[in-house]
Structures are given as structure tokens and as C-alpha cells.
Write a structure and sequence with these properties.
The chain has helices at 10-18, 21-43, 48-64, 66-79, 90-103, 115-119, 122-128, 138-146, 162-172, 181-198, 224-230, 251-263, 298-303, 318-322, 326-329, 340-351, 367-371, 378-391, 402-416, 419-433, and strands spanning 83-87, 108-111, 132-135, 201-205, 208-210, 215-220, 234-240, 244-245, 270-274, 288-294, 437-438, 441-442, 458-459. It has 473 residues and is an alpha/beta fold. Among the domains are: 72-299, NagB/RpiA/CoA transferase-like (Rossmann fold); 418-466, no CATH class. The strands form three sheets. Strands 1-10-7-4-2-3 form a six-stranded parallel β-sheet, with helices on both faces. The longest helix is centred in the N-terminal third of the chain and has 23 residues, at 21-43. It is globular.
Length: 473
């Protein structure tokens, strides 16, 4: 799946997803399970809200001093023997890694889970250079075998059932069909273990980068990130500029909230602290460590007083689990690396105007704001982006245009200031809609209201009842 969104077909992909009842079942099952686990671990941790507040404060402080922290981080990393590369664009980041792989003669690359490498479309670039790249996170491995991108930030294969995966492994790995999760996991582990042992270069993302010590923190559950960062002779960590935090003492506050909101755990299984390449006398670890620090639109977010709040995001994926839109259409319908509520606010800056339709793909219900572990006000940012898109007067390439919507809103505002006129036209409208009504519902309406009834019924207008006077019998 390409990183750059395609607004012209969003309604088509969303419509197809809405019609897929089996997809609904899988999304609801997985999302409900996530939320049940989250509710349990949150209830038993009395300090959860205090940790959210502290994590938010740390992130805000880091964002306010981002330039200073990035300089400090770079100095500490280089002092530890790491090579640091700042990439202004996705192309620069991708080219650096591809050229590095060619320089060290890499034939096979193993990747731990990394949404940032999905963002820069690293895998296709490596494949085009004749280098085999294998995703080692189980969910990422599954969708890679299917030729897809991840459907969820944390759970890449959330749209698949165990039966789907069993059929996939039988076809791609040549094992007898099974839908038992333990046997499927064992088959993937056996296949990936030999790949780990023969890899020339490893790549992972970064959850947090500590400026104070020059330490990279990688959080995961399967051990693939640890193997990707320690077994190959060359290791590359890819991170956005927003991943830097000030001090080592800050990490614990994020670990308290990240696992709980992301997977409903008290703590993830593996938390790796990477300090640099193998030193003299050490028997394991990479001989080279490269850190690619990506901007690619993040500075523009930093410069916007409203948008900069989105840089708090720690990529937990919790907002996807509660979003009524995501739970109906899944991640692939968004046609962006980052789906769901967080994707709708970061994608326009990361991928440009092509993602300008995403802020409108939301109900603004506020559930995402309530669950966010760092308290990002996502609905506020969505409204801000809608306003920016409207001010730019760029019509959306789905039915209707912003300019038409603005004109309709002005006409409605004018009418609403005159109650008698409003009542008069309401009566006419109700009369004209009578032929379209069935059993109290309007299943289709004439333009310009027809888009509403493409996907839902509209309640038929009821006649206005006259109120009886106080003295009436």
C-alpha cells in the first residue's frame, strides 16, 4: 500500500469496507478485546490519570525545546559511536538507508516494527535495489506475505481472522492448514529464526530517544526488535524528530501508559535500551549503528500552534480502537500509512494536500481525545484542519465541494435568522419529501441531500403539533 493517500477513491474504498460484514466482525472483535483489556488494567492502576498528565507535560516540554534536544541527542549518539543522519524528506531518509545497504553489501535485511519506515516506503525501495527485506513482527510479516500494508498502527493484521492466516501460511510457507494460533506462531517463528541468523542489516523504529544519555528505546512484545537490532553487523534506527524526550527518568512515565492503552498490558514484554555499536571486549551487538532522524512535514506541524499538539503522539493506536469510523471501514480504506483519528490529523502534514480529505472522515465524537494517553485534543485539531482546507478553497474530490458547502451554510444562516421564513420552507420541504418516505424513514432524498442517504436512512419530518393553551381542557 502506497504511503500517499488517494482522495479520489476514498468513497469507493470506504463504501466497499462498509459493505463487508465479515470485516466488521473482525474489527469489532479485535477492538472490543483491546478495550476490555485496557479497561481492566486501567481500573487496577490508581495512578493512571496522573501518569497521563505527566506524560503530556514531558511531551509538551520536549516539543517546546525540540531543537535543543535534537542537538543534545545527536552529540550524545555520536559520542557513543553512532552515525546520525537528519533527513528533511522521506526521499532523503530512504536513499540514505538504501545506499548504506549497498555499501555494506547487504543481501538480506530484517525489520522490526516501524511505522516510520512504512511512511517513507522503505521496503519497495530496497526491493527495487535487489535487496531482500523481511518484516519480523508477526502482524507485519503476515501482511507482507499478503502484499498489503498494515491496517492498524499496533495490530497490522487486525482485519484478518486466524482462518485467513492459516490459509495464507499454507499457501506461502507450505505448511499443512491449521487455524490454531500457537501452531501458526510456531511456523512463523521457525521461518523467521533462520532469516534472523542470515541477515546482513537490521532496521527498527524508535519509541523514545533520550537526549540526556543518547539512548534509543524500542518497545515490543515479540523480541523481533531486539533480534533485528543486535544480530546483524549493521543496525539502522529510524525515528521522527518528535520521538526525542529530555531525560532517562522520563521514560517510566511513558511506559506506564503506552502498554496499557496500546495492548491492555501492564508492561510490554521487551523494552530495549540501545546505546551504540559494539565496543571493544563486547561479544555481541552491531558493529555499526546508524540513526536516521526524519522531518518530512513535522517541522510544519511544530510551526502551527494548533497542529504541534499532534507531535505528542506515542503511536499507541488506542484512538483507532474507539473510533466509530475506523471500526466500520478499517485501516486500508484511509489509503494512508497512518489510519484512524491520529492518521487524519498527521497525514495532511506528512503527505501534503493529497490527504486533505482525511480530517473530514470523522464524526468528532471525542472518544479519541478521551482515550489518548497523552491527551491530544484530536477533534480540535480536526476542526482546525477542516478550517484550513476550507480557507484554501480546495474542493474535495469526493461528492460535493467545500465552496458549495460554504454557500449552503451561508444561506442556511440567513434563513435561520428569520423564524417565519424557516417554518415556511420547513413545511414545504416536509411536504416535498413525503413521496420518498417509507415506514417513517427517508431511504433516499433528492440533491443536494442525496449523499446523506447513500449510507443511512433519514427520519421523516414529523408534523408540528400545536401546543394547547394553559387553560385548555
Amino acid at each position: 500500500m502506497a504511503a500517499s493517500p488517494k482522495p479520489q477513491s476514498f468513497f469507493d474504498t470506504a463504501g466497499a469496507a462498509i459493505a463487508d460484514t465479515e470485516l466488521h466482525r473482525k474489527l469489532e472483535s479485535a477492538s472490543t478485546r483491546h478495550l476490555d483489556h485496557f479497561a481492566h488494567v486501567r481500573a487496577e492502576f490508581a495512578g493512571y490519570e496522573a501518569e497521563r498528565d505527566q506524560a503530556r507535560r514531558i511531551k509538551d516540554d520536549a516539543i517546546a525545546h525540540l531543537d535543543e534536544l535534537l542537538i543534545e541527542l545527536t552529540n550524545k549518539l555520536e559520542a557513543r559511536g553512532c552515525s546520525v543522519f537528519f533527513a528533511e524528506t522521506a526521499d532523503e531518509a530512504r536513499d540514505y538507508i538504501v545506499n548504506l545497504a549497498k555499501r555494506v553489501g547487504a543481501k538480506r535485511i530484517v525489520k522490526g516494527k516501524s511505522m516510520t519506515t512504512e511512511e517513507i516506503e522503505l521496503n519497495p525501495a530496497l526491493a527495487a535495489a535487489g535487496i531482500e527485506v523481511v518484516e519480523t513482527d508477526l502482524g507485519e510479516y503476515i501482511v507482507q506475505l499478503r502484499g498489503e500494508g498494515p491496517s492498524h498502527i499496533i495490530t497490522p493484521a487486525i482485519h484478518l481472522s486466524k482462518e485467513d492466516i492459516g490459509q495464507l501460511f499454507a499457501e506461502k510457507l507450505g505448511i499443512p492448514y491449521t487455524d490454531e494460533p500457537e501452531r501458526l506462531t510456531l511456523a512463523a517463528r521457525e521461518k523467521l529464526r533462520e532469516i534472523f541468523l542470515s541477515a546482513d542489516l537490521g532496521v527498527t523504529g524508535v519509541n523514545f530517544a533520550i537526549a540526556e544519555t543518547g539512548t534509543l528505546v524500542v518497545v515490543e512484545n515479540e523480541g523481533n526488535g531486539r533480534l533485528s537490532s543486535t544480530l546483524p553487523d549493521t543496525f539502522v534506527a529510524v525515528m521522527g524528530i518528535e520521538k526525542v524526550i529530555p531525560k532517562m527518568a522520563d521514560v517510566s512515565h511513558f511506559l506506564e501508559v503506552l502498554a496499557r492503552t496500546a495492548t491492555g498490558q501492564k508492561l510490554t514484554t521487551y523494552t530495549s535500551f540501545i546505546s551504540g555499536p559494539r565496543q571493544t571486549g563486547e561479544i555481541d551487538g552491531p558493529r555499526e549503528v546508524h540513526v536516521v532522524i526524519l522531518d518530512s512535514g513535522r517541522s510544519a506541524m511544530l510551526a502551527d500552534p494548533v497542529m504541534r499538539e499532534a507531535l505528542r503522539c506515542i503511536r499507541c493506536g488506542a484512538c483507532l480502537n474507539v473510533c466509530p469510523v475506523y471500526r466500520r471501514i478499517g485501516g486500508h480504506a484511509y489509503q494512508s500509512t497512518y489510519p484512524g483519528p491520529i492518521g487524519s490529523i498527521v497525514s495532511p502534514n506528512l503527505f501534503g494536500s493529497a490527504a486533505g480529505y482525511l480530517p473530514f472522515a470523522s464524526t468528532l465524537c471525542g472518544a479519541c481525545r478521551d482515550i489518548c494517553p497523552v491527551k491530544i485534543d484530536i477533534p480540535r485539531i480536526l476542526l482546525h484542519l477542516r478550517w484550513k482546507e476550507t480557507e484554501a478553497a480546495r474542493p474535495l474530490k469526493w461528492p460535493g465541494a467545500i465552496s458549495r458547502a460554504r454557500g449552503g451554510a451561508r444561506r442556511f444562516a440567513t434563513m435561520a435568522r428569520h423564524p417565519r421564513t424557516m417554518r415556511f420552507f420547513s413545511k414545504i420541504g416536509a411536504f416535498m419529501l413525503r413521496p420518498f418516505a417509507r415506514a417513517g424513514w427517508l431511504r433516499r432524498m433528492p440533491p443536494p441531500f442525496s449523499n446523506w442517504t447513500r449510507f443511512r436512512d433519514f427520519p421523516r419530518p414529523r408534523p408540528r403539533r400545536r401546543q394547547r393553551s394553559a387553560g385548555g381542557s
